[in-house]
Design goal:
The chain has about 375 residues and is α/β, with parallel strands linked by helices. It contains ten helices and 17 strands. The structure holds S-adenosylmethionine (SAM).
């Protein structure tokens, strides 16, 4: 493969995966050249402008050391799905399953099916590791936050092993919630955990947060109401040889009563309903506990009109911060906001927002 000079950012190797996620989820990484590493650093070739990358890195991690350089990279010449189809379907890859998330507008179902089959064939041709192509057949719904999928091509299954941040997760897309686009968020939260902490993951799913934070925490309590999620969570503990996670199956509204004042850190990844279960989180929190709160917030202005995307993000973040602060204080606790960020776009004018806050004892 030819070697080309490319503008890149150099970061310490131990932060490489985290920074790669951060830049990749914002479309700031070049895909036509291969990132590389030496014994101390990772070199990530950039698509975005220096100022833009700088802002993202400083915003996410003020202590991160990085340097902009021009370096040699190996060019990647490969067939692309877009090149084969003439249009770009949206899809994400979970393990060896490609999930088509959006296709161009079609006149009817028959045409849509045909377009989906063409897209699936192109994905299978380009991604040699993909063995199944599915598309979403329903919205995420219900207490278990699951959805149905339609298999378009390849093997007839929805179970796979997904690798993320050096961990392996056995998942079944239909039986328990899993989102591959939260990899950076899980790395970010894990990096904040200090030795000796007891962490409660209130909505653990197949264990994605719980298992990653367990590497640094003393003890993790992982709760979920979905028996299938619990089954995968137990298998993922074995798969990753993690032994400091206690698994509790059931409704956290009941289980929190047994866990009063136990947590140094609580993860609340249930964006639509976290507010309703804030009381249970506060019940489990020690004085000084850090809460990682996730909420879906609209970026539409009060009159229902559209706002510019950067304004929309600010608005959504502000709404999540005020919701959390108001809720915590209404229960008589102090709330110090440590950080707030957009995690991902949820709908055309709505975002999932993460707010980290320190909870003080009852005022
Ligand atoms: C959005 S998923 C998050 C899963 C996981 N944290 C992840 O990032 O992959 C929310 C999870 O909360 C669980 N859940 C919903 N309500 C619950 C409740 N009241 N008690 C315990 N778990 C609950 C669902 O079964 C689901 O697995």
């Amino acid at each position: 493969m030819p070697v080309v000079k490319a503008f890149c950012v150099r970061v310490p190797k131990r932060r490489g995966e985290e920074v790669r996620w951060l830049l990749s989820e914002r479309g700031l990484l070049r895909r036509d050249v291969r990132a590389r590493a030496d014994s101390n650093f990772v070199y990530l070739p950039l698509e975005g402008l220096k100022e833009e990358v700088e802002k993202v890195l400083k915003g996410a991690s003020p202590a991160l050391e990085f340097e902009f350089l021009i370096e040699d990279f190996e060019a990647v010449r490969r067939e692309t799905v877009e090149g084969l189809l003439g249009f770009r379907p949206s899809y994400e890859v979970v393990g060896d399953i490609a999930v088509i998330t959006a296709l161009p507008l079609c006149d009817d179902e028959a045409e849509e099916r045909q377009v989906a089959e063409r897209a699936a064939a192109a994905i299978l041709k380009v991604h040699k590791n993909v063995k199944v192509v599915v598309r979403r057949a329903s919205a995420v719904s219900g207490v278990y936050r699951t959805r149905r999928f339609e298999i378009i091509a390849g093997e007839r299954r929805t179970e796979t092993v997904h690798k993320e941040n050096g961990f392996k997760f056995l998942v079944d897309l239909e039986r328990a919630y899993f989102n591959p686009r939260l990899g950076y968020e899980r790395a970010r939260v894990s990096a904040l955990v200090k030795g000796g902490e007891t962490v409660v993951d209130m909505f653990a799913g197949v264990g994605t947060f719980a298992i990653q934070v367990a590497r640094r925490a003393a003890r993790v309590i992982a709760i979920d109401i979905n028996p299938d999620a619990i089954c995968y969570l137990r298998r993922n503990l074995e798969l990753n040889k993690v032994t400091n996670v206690e698994v509790l199956e059931g409704d956290v509204r009941e289980l929190s009563k047994r866990l009063r004042g136990i947590a140094d850190r609580i993860i609340m990844n249930l964006p639509h309903d976290a507010f309703a279960l804030l009381e249970n989180a506060l019940e489990m929190a020690k004085d000084g506990c850090v809460l990682h709160y996730y909420a879906v917030k609209s970026a539409v202005d009060a009159g229902g009109g559209k706002v510019r995307s950067s304004e929309g993000v600010r608005k959504a973040i502000g709404a999540a911060v005020e919701e959390l602060r108001g809720g915590v204080e209404a229960h008589g606790f102090r709330c110090e906001i440590l950080n707030a960020r957009r995690v991902k776009q949820y709908a055309p004018h709505a975002y999932i927002v993460a707010v980290d806050a320190k909870i003080g004892g009852r005022a």
